[in-house]
Amino acid sequence: MTYLSRSNDVELTDLKISAPTTAGPAEPLPTPVDNVVALPKAKRKRAEVYAFDYSGVSAAFAKEAEATAKRIRNRLRLHTIETGKELLIIKKELGHGKFGKWLEYHFGWKERTAQNYMNSATAFGSTPQVIDVLPPSTVYKLAAKSTPDALRQSVIDEIERGEKPDPKQIESKIAATKSEARKNGDPDENTSASISQEPFDISVPNNAIASLDRALAIEAPATAGLDQDAAQSASIMQVQELLAQRIVEHLKKRFGDKFSTLRDAILKTDLAALRHALSVA
Questions:
Q1: 147-183: pLDDT as tens digits
Q2: Domain spans in the chain, listed from the N-terminal domain onward
Q3: Is the pTM of this model over 0.70?
Q4: What are φ and ψ of residue 27, in 5° steps?
Q5: What are phi and psi of 274, to 5 degrees?
Q6: How far is CA 124 from the centre of its chain?
Q7: Cα separation of 205 and 255, whole Å?
Q8: What are the tens digits of pLDDT across the range 17-28?
Q9: Paired sense of beta strands 10-16 and 2-7, if any
Q10: Where do runs of H (alpha helix) occur along the chain?
């Protein structure tokens, strides 16, 4: 049966609802399920986990911050190792006396600063990941020649196992080791080696002692207006300061370029040990 609709005298066929001419099972209609179409489950992205607390910022920023930290660590590692290696070459060619002047002229550095780089390059050139993990101050103390090899190697082993040693604990161990060595009066093997490696052939002129006696002639300081105890205390302090200054000036004048070698050796030596050695010399 066909229904007709007339619009503007035009017959239109609306819908055919007559039964099919050929026999056969009716085609099943799709069953609606609340108008919801099932789609494949999307893979859930695993959240990044960082040791640093990035709460309050986006995941994208946290990822970029971690990448930035990695780039900076790489630059610091490259800077420390390469700078140390180059300084070792310059020091070898220039010699100890001129090397200090070269550093002062170009960078305004003391030799201690350069020594930090050179020690780091020597100690961690084959294990640069140490510089990635530890702060520079700890790296320098750990790389120092006075630090026992066993202690340094234990830290390297920890880092190579993927662990992250506590810098404060490392520095405490280094300080305790040095304190124990001074207490026992036994110089550390590395300290002895570091001093023996430096050229320490300093010739003293025959008239040096007499010249020193003249240089150390110190007039009594003025203490007018002070009471007796205060005057005596001020007098002693001023004499000590003047004496120290004149000794340094005399040594600089006498030893010239070799003075920095002597100075560095004195600064590395325990004061009590130096006083004892001078007293029995």
A1: 999 999 999 999 999 898 999 999 999 998 888 877 7
A2: 60-197, 208-280
A3: no
A4: -75, 125
A5: -65, -45
A6: 12
A7: 9
A8: 555 555 556 666
A9: antiparallel
A10: 59-94, 96-107, 111-124, 129-133, 136-143, 149-160, 167-184, 189-197, 208-215, 228-255, 259-268, 271-280
